[in-house]
Amino acid sequence: MISRDMPQRIVGRLQRPFGDLHYEASGSGPALLFAHGLGGNHLSWWQQVAHFAPHYTCVAFAHRGFAPSAAVAGGPDPADYAGDLAALIDHLKFSDVRLVGQSMGGWTMLEYAIAQPARVKALVLSSTSGTLDRRGCDPTGGKQYDAWLKDAEAKLKNGAARSIHPAVGVRAAERSPALHLLYRSIDEMAGPLDKEKLRAGLRRAANRRTAELKSFKVPTLLIAGGEDVVFPPFLASAIAATLPCGESALMPDAGHSPYFEQAATFNGLVEAFLARQR
Q: What gap in Å lies between CA 113 and CA 213, rounded to an integer?
């Protein structure tokens, strides 16, 4: 029988002004950190950590307010996310990092990369434009965005009527009902967190323009799902074209959570991108 040692794993809690930030570090090698979306927590990245831990030190954490991190009275403010990430990176004594952010996690990762570009070797934004204003990123002046939004709202209504989580989507739920169930279960771990209030805060914080990133030299990959009804997939290539070191990839039949729905394809894209940054 061929035996394989499992990657080293550490479960920790970093004390922050709001309370404890839960994190898990697995594997060894260059630092690779993951920030989850509104419907997730550190567990969302189970398929990525298992894949990358043999070659990277993978760190997944739960944003403030998301269990098992401590709750925040009145709910978390997205403006605090990048500071929590900075504290975690310093706590773990990483000199440089590679960052992957999904949806809401893009707010965390992009803001850290803007503040600390010399420490970020690579940035992956999955189904997100982070703190960039979405409509403002539309090269058609908002026309394509408005048309997409109208269509997406109709699809969201249809999905809701069938109890399908919008971050997975109808077709993905039909293809992989077990993954859909797991996604919903992870989402429900957040408990009483007011996600609608947090979503409104995220929208208010997304006010950057691509012109602000003209000198942003961090290699950045934007991945989008062609069936996404939460993030406009066409924005991935549009934003990448404005960045000095930007590129994009489309997963045509994935929804809002390509990392969760089609992990092998997603991991392959990220793996190849990281290899090019060495």
A: 11
pTM: 0.96
Sketch out the chain's domains with CATH numbers: 9-276 (3.40.50.1820)
Question: In the prediction, which pLDDT does 2 show?
Answer: 43
| The pLDDT of residue 196 | 95
Q: Say how far apart CA 186 and CA 184 lie, in whole Å.
A: 6
Summarize the confidence of residues 18-46 as an average pLDDT. 98
Q: Residue 96 has which token pair?
A: 């440089």
